Amino acid sequence: MEKTPIQKLYEKIPSFRCKEGCTRCCDNWIQFAPEEAARCGGFDFSGEACPKLTDGGCSVYEHRPLICRLFASSEMMPCPYGYGPEIPLSEAETKAILQEYLRLRKEQEGYGKDGQ
Ligand code: SF4
Ligand code: SF4
To answer: According to a count of CB atoms within 10 Å of the terminal CB, is the N or C end of the chain lower?
Structure first.
């Protein structure tokens, strides 16, 4: 299946391996676009940590939203343990990705339509 514009944005984010067993970044209320929620089977937040977090780690890792991919891959969101890619995204690169991501999200969420 052809990748969506949001999935193509994922390709701009450098990947790395986290500290073994660490899920600290998943203790947050994360943001996601409708298509990301759909790929992950929905996000039903009832507590503090992400509902996709299991004892074995992220249960939707392959489909995790863009914000999860940015943790520690951007110099704007450094890992407290010093993990991350060799060359993280600069602030300017991160902002450009986020700007485009938000634009795409707004399109999907229907903001700005019908004069709203
Ligand atoms: S980026 Fe760092 S703090 Fe976040 S899950 Fe990975 S190792 Fe843990
Ligand atoms: S979707 Fe996965 S990687 Fe993202 S916060 Fe939830 S458990 Fe962590």
So the answer is: N
